[in-house]
């Protein structure tokens, strides 16, 4: 049993915290939205009055926030930043998906305070968070990861150590960039087939066992009616939002520009998701990008 | 045991014919390259002196040729076309990957001669052809496919019936278009990760069990050294050639234009493979497209 | 004064024929739409009862048709093709924008009938056609062009001889492919500026005298209100239709594929115009492609 | 006659400073490269020992630096930043091409020191700088621009006021993004034409007076031999470097991402220039991007 400060109780953070509570840990929870805190209290957590209040007695600090600026603010803000308030023996785990450069900056600042920190963004979505089957993609020291492992296994199934600080973020972006492209091209392929009179379900079944198989053909098929439980079959609601994918592709583009890398398909996909957002679909599942190329979907 | 005419004994056709011979069928074989015929004779086939000579007594005619113009010439040529020479009871199976419009045209001409025909392009590559584990993607009448099935199972493991004449070609192109994009974006992702100091093997292993998983991460990884048996680990030799992918993406673009479809990622990938070809890599495995975006690969 | 058969009296053909009539030539005119013929008769032409009827006494045959298949049908149709009916001394000028391969095929067939032919697609739009300021982009023999020149100057201002048969079409496609990309990127640039609070008119005025200057900044600006006479300022009506640009970009893609060329920007633009068409803007001026990337336009 | 501090004497800054000296102004010059300072002294300037030394008595401060971080460091560095050292009556003109956000940040900081500042990036290249024919694209207060105008006219021909602080940078990026795409697609068009047997010079001449006309067809044609004075005709040396265009397209991408804008062609072009850089052509003129798509160029 660990004393865990859990900050950020959104769509992902809330079920992750719930799984930690189920595993028997003592959680002090904080979120800017009172209702999110209330829900976590119902699940067994103790409400903290502030992020600082949450961490002062913690063994483990876990954050799950929307973007780089929130993470930077949480830990490094001149007046309210957490680093001076976290106990020296505590371990810091940031599960947010943010810019690699920000992850490195925060980890370096944590080190100056004598704190061990890993970046541990996740893959698996809200369903994986609820089921406790997330994949953690970890950057930081191997020894720090070993300290974190007993906690991470309460929330996820797979843990990958991909390198030093920031590497977890880089790997997450590489995965999501590929995913964004794979989803969009699967939509292109299905739309092309349907335009030629093929049945999207039959075509998907074939592709799902052929060389074009992917999570997009098998799990989150973008064509309505192909997979009963996919967002596409319920009006593209739920799932991983178009604008979240857009954010990740933007982070990937920045990561590419920072090292002079070329990601022609990744950046084209970024623009496709941006156009889909502009068409009013930013809040739908990212598989709705198929709407750009398909009629009557 | 069927009497089979097998025309086209290239990298794919030769092992397919060998598997039919192993299954006990009587094959009359033809290819424009005498050495290819000789090799098939060693495997147990009987050399035909011409394509017409191959088909005159056949129950089954199978063709496996490089491109639309070869298939159109083989069956429809005014002087040497096969259709008038194939026995009326015979079944025609074209396994070539060609334009859907050509497949429909040849099947319609065959029907006018009273011949049943299916388009049955394959997925699985030379390895699948040798192992008899190809996937057949079939367009044509269901009853015709049922007649063909006992033969197809001697060469492949999966058989998909995706629609009427030409639908097999459409589905094959949809699959290969998605594959071409998936391969190229996997290369982009690995190159981006490596540029940030990540290990391509560790990154690939993570992606292979995450949402970006694909045949490109698991079977034919484009980064040298990640998978021992992938073309990338042997100088991109063997495998499915860059220029064959370029051909398929061109067919996909034509299929898109013929129906007013949009395939932005598919056409960008077409250009990437064209640029890779222009850089002198047309004969390498298509995973060599990673060379466009990676240093020292 | 020449006896001219003019076939195809659409948005472009009608004003071109009118200019020839103004210059004093005798025209026998034909179009599948009777109203188009009637209008040309009002302008001074003589109605022919068929295309064959139009050409039988002609010195010059001019065609201005929508697409490759129409031109191929007009000249080469087994029963109604014009070639056997055109007098041997006559000169054939096809002004349609079609596939280079079709242009070469028809010119070769014409040569077998002893007829001199050039492909002479135009640039300048309906405004240029009306004003007699078209640019002719000519493929064929130089001596044939010299025979055509006295006629062409009645319809246009510039005449470029770019090569042998089909070269006129290739050059036209090269120009229009670049134009399609330039228009779309000008839209991207203006939308980006406006998103940052700039005034589209001021930004356009700056670009129009800077290194990004183009016909899209100076003549057919895609942003409403920047240029009073541009289609964008009248709801994108009139001008050169989105679907005509889409057609030309498709021809450019086919021309690229036929020689293994790479046109990454050209093919991406093709898909942008295809998406704009799918969004219901196929009949608007092609500058409406800006709608894909701009809010409230 | 004004007392001008001129900081940054590179390929652009040196000839700009020379033109100010020719116009009779007194310049105190500074650059981190002593040889650059020496050359400016030969032209009539006075060497400053530091940037601070240059500005202490200045009426006008002009900076021309490579990138955002240099400008931010020059003015805002905690220990050596210029703002506290510039006389209150002085006018600050930054001619560097940098991120709009950085331009706004520096201008706001200047305002807190009571200093008037404009961002005035230029168009026209080293040739325009030498000839005194640059275009200035200005963001800031109109009254500040009027104070700057008498100085700017000594270095340039056109002055555009495009909006408030940062707007000059936005407009410059919009222009250069469009330019980068126009250059690359002009290369695609010429390569396509040449692949079909056309002469690049004849094709360029036609395009230069047609709807695809641009600075890339008329002034800096990317095909060797078409324009005698273009970089392409001297091995792509001189001109505007590929990696400078790559930098500007990166700034455009960041500007797009910061407001959720879509620039599909702009970002694809960014990747083309990145691939050209990776092929070893980063130091060549940006028109060398044609090498990606052209054989034997």
Describe the structure.
Four copies of one chain form a homotetramer. With 297 residues, chain A is an alpha/beta fold. Chain A has two domains: 3-164, Rossmann fold; 170-292, N-(1-d-carboxylethyl)-l-norvaline Dehydrogenase, domain 2, CATH 1.10.1040. Helices cover 48% and strands 13% of the residues of chain A. Chain A contains twelve helices and nine strands. The first copy, chain A, has helices spanning 13-22, 34-42, 51-55, 68-76, 100-112, 125-131, 142-152, 167-195, 200-208, 215-218, 242-259, 264-281, and strands spanning 3-7, 26-30, 46-47, 60-63, 91-94, 116-119, 122-123, 134-139, 156-163. In chain A, the strands form two sheets. A six-stranded parallel β-sheet of chain A has the order 3-2-1-4-5-6, sandwiched between helices. In chain A, strands 7-8-9 form a three-stranded mixed β-sheet. In chain A, helix 1 packs parallel to helix 6. The longest helix of chain A has 29 residues, at 167-195. The first copy, chain A, is globular, with a radius of gyration of 20 Å. At the A-B interface, strand 9, helix 8, helix 9, helix 11 and helix 12 of A face strand 9, helix 8, helix 9, helix 11 and helix 12 of B.
Evaluate the radius of gyration of chain A.
Answer: 20 Å
Strand elements of chain A, count: 9
Number of domains of chain A: 2
Treating each run of at least 4 consecutive H or I residues as one helix, how many helices of chain A?
12
Largest interface: C-D, 66 and 67 residues
Low-confidence stretches of chain A: none
Strand content of chain A: 5-15%
Which term fits the overall shape of chain A?
globular
The H-level CATH homologous superfamily of the largest domain in chain A, spelled out, is: NAD(P)-binding Rossmann-like Domain
Do you know the CATH topology of the largest domain in chain A? Answer: Rossmann fold
* Quaternary structure type: homotetramer
User: Mean pLDDT score of chain A, rounded?
Assistant: 96
Order of neighbouring strands in the sheet with most strands of chain A: 3-2-1-4-5-6
CATH class of the largest domain in chain A: Alpha Beta
Helix-strand makeup class of chain A: alpha/beta
Give the CA-CA distance, first to last residue of chain A. 49 Å
Report the sheet with the most strands of chain A, covering strand number, pairing sense and barrel closure.
Answer: 6 strands, parallel
The proportion of residues forming helix of chain A, as a percent range, comes to 40-55%
CATH architecture of the largest domain in chain A: 3-Layer(aba) Sandwich
């Amino acid at each position: 049993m660990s004393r865990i400060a859990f900050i950020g109780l959104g769509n992902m953070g809330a079920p992750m915290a719930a799984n930690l509570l189920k595993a028997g840990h003592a959680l002090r929870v904080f979120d800017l939205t009172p209702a999110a805190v209330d829900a976590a209290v119902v699940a067994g957590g103790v409400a903290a009055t502030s992020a600082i209040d949450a961490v002062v007695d913690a063994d483990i600090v876990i954050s799950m926030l929307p973007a780089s600026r929130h993470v930077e603010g949480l830990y490094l803000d001149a007046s309210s930043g957490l680093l001076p308030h976290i106990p020296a023996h505590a371990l810091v785990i940031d599960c947010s998906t943010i810019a690699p450069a920000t992850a490195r900056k925060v980890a370096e600042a944590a080190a100056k305070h004598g704190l061990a920190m890993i970046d541990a963004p996740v893959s698996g979505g809200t369903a994986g968070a609820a089921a406790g089957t997330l994949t953690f993609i970890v950057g930081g020291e191997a020894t720090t990861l070993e300290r974190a492992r007993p906690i991470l296994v309460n929330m996820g199934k797979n843990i990958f150590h991909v390198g030093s600080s920031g590497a977890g973020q880089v790997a997450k972006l590489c995965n999501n960039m590929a995913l964004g492209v794979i989803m969009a091209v699967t939509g292109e392929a299905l739309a092309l087939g349907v335009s030629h009179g093929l049945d999207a379900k039959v075509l998907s079944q074939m592709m799902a066992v052929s060389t074009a198989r992917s999570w997009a053909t098998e799990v989150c098929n973008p064509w309505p009616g192909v997979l009963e439980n996919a967002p596409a079959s319920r009006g593209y609601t739920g799932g991983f939002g178009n604008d979240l994918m857009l954010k990740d592709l933007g982070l990937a583009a920045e990561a590419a520009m920072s090292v002079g890398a070329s990601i022609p398909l990744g950046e084209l996909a970024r623009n496709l998701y941006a156009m889909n957002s502009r068409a009013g679909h930013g809040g739908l599942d990212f598989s709705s990008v198929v709407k750009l190329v398909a009629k009557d979907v």
